[in-house]
Amino acid sequence: MYDLCKVAAVALTAAIAVPAGTTAAAAAPYKSEYTVSTVLPAPFPWGIAADKWVELVKQRTNGRINLKVYSNSQLVSGDQTKEFSAMRQGIIDMAVGSTINWSPQIKELNLFSLPFLLPDHAAMDRLTGGEVGKQLFEVLRKKGVEPLGWAENGFRQVTNSKHPIKTPDDLTGLKIRVVGSPLYNDIFTALGANPTQMSWADAKPALTTKAVDGQENPITVCKIAKIDTVGQVYMTRWNYVNDPLIFAVNKRVWASFTPADQKILREAAVEAGKAGIAASREGDDIAAKELEKAGVTITVPTAAERAAFVAKTRGVYADWAKKIGPDLVKLAEKAVSQK
Ligand code: X2X
After folding, report:
1. In-domain check, residue 21
2. Residues with CB under 6 A from ligand 1
3. Domain that residue 292 falls in
4. What pLDDT is recorded for position 28?
5. Can you give the pTM of this predicted structure?
């Protein structure tokens, strides 16, 4: 009797471990397609990362696992700040999402939007690749999704249709479209501008009709979205925040995969993320040159000019450091300052 039970248990374990799509009848059935939400499609670096993930997973599972990218936040009716909740609830299966868009639900993700925290890409990598990244992934896990890896939208720059921005005074009264986190409202208010929060879907029409004077986004995004054609001819390359992207999967969907398939999904995300990060970082300088050719004036603040922006936003930084969690912010500051 005992032996029979043991045999049955072994057989059951074996059946569960067999990936779906094979002959094992007892394996959990996989969906024929998994939805992946993004905001920006290829050729934006964001879409490049998502597409690469889809391709690698398909290849490595011999077509057993099919991911399909739905860009422009279409799975959340264009409201990118609802993406995380939709994934957590299982309305969407997976996402390659911006920490900015998820930060209304996860306050810790505002970390990357602390003004002027990050001096360069190396500092960014020390955060995502170190203890800070680990802690943030733990927070996401507790909130009902499994995070797999990082990609990058890029360092964000400010553009406008009126005049070059060299000092905080140049921002006075400018109507600037900002993204979903209230932290951006606070930053631009502190700088004397008039920020207005809207989705990406609404941003370009607002720029076209001149309902707003400016916006802020990475250079590759500005170039690919052709912001010069809607009058955004002044850019300040101030690298005031970076915008990392996270590959993540709804918890129940994640649990439905065999360990072997989870490994494939995770490794593919890490690899696809690297491709996306390279596209963003290498793309920035190229995009800057192309924008200049198209007539955009790009201002790079000197150290002293940058310091004036930093000084104006210190209060916002201190305020939000409390909301994000002082220990996490301290850990990040330490990692940033380590060379
Ligand atoms: O809305 C934006 O500006 C964008 C596309 O960069 C994000 O989704 C954060």
Report:
1. no
2. 39-40, 80, 98, 100-101, 153, 179, 200, 217, 221, 243
3. 31-337
4. 62
5. 0.92
Pocket perturbation via mutation, ligand 1, pick of 82, 153, 183 by most ligand atoms within 8 A of CB: 153
Q: Hey, what long-range contacts does 80-87 have (CB within 8 A, 24 or more apart)?
A: 80/39, 80/180, 80/199, 80/200, 81/180, 81/199, 83/37, 83/39, 84/143, 84/145, 86/37, 87/37, 87/145, 87/248, 87/249, 87/250
- Cα of 39 from ligand 1 centre, angstroms: 7
List the residue whose alpha carbon is closest to atom 5 of ligand 1. Answer: 200
CA of 177 to the centre of ligand 1 (A): 11
Average pLDDT over residues 18-44: 77
- Name the domain count of the chain: 1
Find out whether 85 and 75 touch, Cβ atoms under 8 Å. no
Residue ranges with strand state E in the chain: 34-37, 67-70, 94-98, 145-160, 175-178, 194-197, 214-218, 234-250, 297-299
How much distance in Å is there from the Cα of 315 to the middle of ligand 1?
24
CATH code where residue 331 lies: 3.40.190.170
- Domain-embedded: residue 17: no
Query: Residue 25 above 60 pLDDT?
Result: no
Q: Is the pLDDT of residue 300 over 70?
A: yes
